Amino acid sequence: MGVDPGLTRCGLSLIEGGSGRSVTALDVDVVRTPADMDLAQRLLRISEAAEYWLDTHKPTVVAIERVFAQHNVRTAMGTAQAGGVIALAAARRGIDVCFHTPSEVKAAVTGNGSADKAQVTAMVMRILGLQVAPTPADAADALALGICHCWRAPMIARMAQAEAMAAAQKRKYELRLAEERKARATAAKKLERAKREAGAR
C-alpha cells in the first residue's frame, strides 16, 4: 500500500509485485479534507479512510513518503501528521511500515532523484501500462510509492539481513573478548596466589 500523505489530499494506492520488476496497480484513491475543517477532524477522516483500506485490502506492507525537507513548515507538519496517523493504523494491525524519501521514490521510478511530477506521472503510466494519467498528482505519487517499495524491498531485506549478521558477529566478538579477559584475570590471580604461597614457604 503506497501512501502519499497530505492533509488537503492524501493519496492511497495498492500495488502488487510480481516476478522481477513486474508490478500491477490494484486500486488508487485520494482522500480530501477541506482546509477550513478542524485539524483533528481532518486527521480523523484520513485515518478512517486508511483504516478502511487496511481492513479491506490487507496489504503486507505500507510504504509512506517520508517528510524530508520542505520550505513550508506548516505544510510539512501537516504531511507528517497525516503520515503518522496512517503509520499508527498500520502498526496497530501488525502491518510493517516503511518510509521512502521523495528522491528515493523518484530515483526508483524514473532513474532521476530530481525528476518533476510530470516525469514521475509519465513513468508511472508506462510502468503500470495505464492509458490515462492518474489524477490528481497525489494519486500518481501514491502509485509511485508502491512501485518504489516493490522494487526496493529485496534490497532493504538484504541490508537488514546484513546488519543483523554484523550485529551477531559483533556480539560474538565482544563475548570472546570478555571470556579472554576473564581467563587472563583468573590466570593472574592463580599466579599471584602461587607466588604468595611460595614466599610463605
From TrEMBL:
Q: Which cofactor does it need?
A: Mg(2+)
Q: Where does Mg(2+) 1 bind?
A: D4, D138
Matching entries from Pfam families are given as: RuvC (PF02075)
One Gene Ontology term, aspect cellular component: cytoplasm
Active site, UniProt feature: D4, E65, D138
| UniProt keyword annotations, A-Z | Cytoplasm, DNA damage, DNA recombination, DNA repair, DNA-binding, Endonuclease, Hydrolase, Magnesium, Metal-binding, Nuclease
Subcellular location(s) per record: Cytoplasm
Functionally, this protein is described as follows: The RuvA-RuvB-RuvC complex processes Holliday junction (HJ) DNA during genetic recombination and DNA repair. Endonuclease that resolves HJ intermediates. Cleaves cruciform DNA by making single-stranded nicks across the HJ at symmetrical positions within the homologous arms, yielding a 5'-phosphate and a 3'-hydroxyl group; requires a central core of homology in the junction. The consensus cleavage sequence is 5'-(A/T)TT(C/G)-3'. Cleavage occurs on the 3'-side of the TT dinucleotide at the point of strand exchange.
What protein name applies here?
Crossover junction endodeoxyribonuclease RuvC
What is the protein's species of origin?
Rhodococcoides kyotonense
